[in-house]
Design goal:
It is a single chain. The protein is an alpha/beta fold and 552 residues long. Helix content is 53%, strand content 11%.
Length: 552
């Protein structure tokens, strides 16, 4: 693709100014329209050292509304720290996943986010400095998948994705870098090592060209920019932005997605008003249940038949859960003490190996998720873990992709992240309650699989628990909470309404098991009709998997 760039092209000042003024005038108006309609823009700038990426961004930002423009510069790379991770041999590639800094920097829909160097450069760095020869091919595949899926999700979620590659010749690069290097005022920008890379221009050219050809997606195209003429470059960038925004704003909104977003926003603000099911007559209850069964069947038809990702051979099913499994109190107390002690010892070894542990809890209301989490957290140093709850999303979170609030809430390498409900809300409560459109929740299965694949490529150990309770035991716990003043805070009208919706939730859970039980993150059932059994089982699974991961 690099051969497409005419580096000899020059634009005169007389030709440039009227064209530039016209494009910028359009872009200013389009940026405001995009802000009003919630169309986000992601613009990535990659290119050669010395190509002028920063100058091109500076010229563009000068014309834009600063209130709706975000800028992210790729963080400095700690080569020494990266080498230490490689030498550990634990498979962990760094303190954070490859994509986390780009996830965190993403502005909301309606704003423009500019990245000066981004995920492509970051992936190249990881491959060079953190990979052993043995896992290079696997990580290359994982990183390519990660960047393509990120761009795909942004495009599907209301963002316009543009990628600019600023190209210059070998001679021009050498001249520019040497000039910066030899000038005392700019020498800090170009190290001796960076200057020496000029000799590798031809090799890097071939790599860049292959990268560009393999990542020029329909949903995220590359725009080639002549970095040797700033006027031509500025025009190419402005034209691409104007065309992309005009196309995006001309396409009509998705009515189903808008309705779902409005309902989600109302729920987040506490504005939804639903009747308490305990006030219904038997006839009303039967009508509600009939509607629930009909909705469950309809949603099951809208779920994907298959996943793009590999799924384990026999994923769990709700119908197969054995609710009779139990431990006696004495056996429980002994086993709990043993497994907690074991976890405390393993957590220290996990920290030294810098392995991140992520424990995710989903399950039935009143199944005992909180009590299970408490017994896991009790076993280890409070400094070692963070508990991430998942209440209704905030206004800011609703303005981002659904995974964003989890992209930004991850444990660091060597630490434990415990999730009290999770990103699976998109395919559970958001599916059932209509807070996401069918198109949104049906594509979320693969988005989640990709996210979890990136966590696995990072080196995280991800354990996903479904905490299950029989309907009879759930009702007993509901009534106990309702009648006990010390427990009434645990029960809400929403919990009672959810019991009416068990057909929809059962269908959603089975689809979730079927479509997201990957080999690197399978679902595991915690049979919690007997809470003692579930607590010990969770700790035992955590310990067994940690030992396996640490090679003990």
């Amino acid at each position: 693709m690099l051969e497409q760039v005419d580096l000899s092209a020059k634009m005169s000042k007389e030709e440039y100014k009227p064209l530039h003024d016209e494009l910028i005038a359009k872009l200013v108006v389009l940026q405001q329209e995009a802000r009003k309609k919630g169309v986000g823009v992601v613009a990535l700038f990659e290119g050669w050292n010395g190509a002028g990426k920063g100058s091109r961004i500076g010229d563009l930002v000068y014309e834009l509304d600063a209130r709706a423009t975000h800028m992210h510069v790729l963080s400095n790379f700690d080569e020494e720290g990266a080498a230490r991770f490689r030498d550990m041999g634990s498979g962990v590639t760094g303190f954070e996943p490859l994509m986390q800094e780009f996830w965190q920097a993403l502005g909301p829909r309606g704003d423009m986010t500019l990245y000066e160097r981004g995920w492509y450069t970051a992936a190249a760095r990881r491959l060079v400095y953190t990979d052993s020869e043995a896992n290079h091919a696997a990580h290359l595949q994982a990183y390519r998948r990660a960047v393509s899926e990120f761009e795909r999700q942004l495009s599907a979620d209301g963002y316009v994705v543009l990628k600019f590659f600023v190209h210059i010749s070998k001679d021009v690069q050498k001249k520019r870098l040497k000039g910066l290097h030899d000038n005392p005022d700019t020498a800090w920008r170009v190290s001796d090592e960076e200057l020496a890379t000029v000799k590798d221009y031809d090799e890097i050219y071939a790599r860049y060209d292959e990268l560009l050809r393999n990542t020029d997606f329909d949903f995220a195209r590359w725009t080639m920019v002549n970095g040797e003429d700033k006027r031509s470059a500025n025009i190419a960038i402005a034209k691409a932005l104007v065309r992309a925004l005009e196309r995006a704003l001309a396409s009509g909104p998705d009515a189903a997605a808008e309705a779902a977003a409005a309902k989600a926003a109302a729920n987040s603000a506490g504005a939804l008003d639903q009747a308490d099911p305990r006030d219904r007559t038997p006839e009303e209850t039967e009508r509600v249940m009939a509607a629930a069964r009909a909705q469950a069947a309809e949603q099951a038809e809208e779920a994907p038949l298959h996943s793009r990702f590999t799924i384990v051979k026999n994923p769990p099913r709700l119908a197969d859960i054995d609710h009779t499994l139990a431990l006696a109190r004495e056996e429980y107390q002994e086993a709990l003490k043993r497994e907690q002690k074991r976890f405390a010892e393993l957590e220290l070894k996990m920290y030294l190996a810098r392995v991140p542990l992520m424990v995710l809890y989903e399950g039935d209301d009143a199944a005992g998720k909180g009590g299970n989490i408490k017994r896991v957290a009790q076993a280890i140093d409070p400094r070692a873990y963070t508990i991430f709850p998942s209440p209704a999303p905030t206004k800011v979170e609703l303005a981002h992709p659904h995974l964003w609030r989890y992209w930004t809430r991850l444990p660091r390498a060597g630490h434990v992240g415990i999730y009290d409900r999770s990103w699976y809300g998109r395919v559970l409560v958001e599916r059932v309650e209509g807070f996401a459109s069918p198109a949104e929740w049906s594509r979320a299965y693969d988005e989640i699989n990709e996210f979890e694949g990136e966590l696995e490529a990072w080196g995280a150990l991800l354990l996903k628990f479904w905490v299950a309770v029989s309907p009879e035991e759930q009702l007993s716990r509901f009534n106990d909470r309702q009648s006990n003043p010390d427990k009434q805070w645990k029960i809400t009208p929403e919990d009672w309404r959810n019991r009416d919706k068990h057909p929809q939730y059962d269908a959603a859970v089975d689809d979730m098991f079927r479509l997201t039980s990957t080999p690197y993150a399978p679902w595991r059932i915690l049979e919690s009709t007997n809470k003692y059994y579930a607590r010990v089982k969770a700790l035992k699974i955590i310990n067994d998997e940690l030992e396996k991961r640490l090679g003990l």
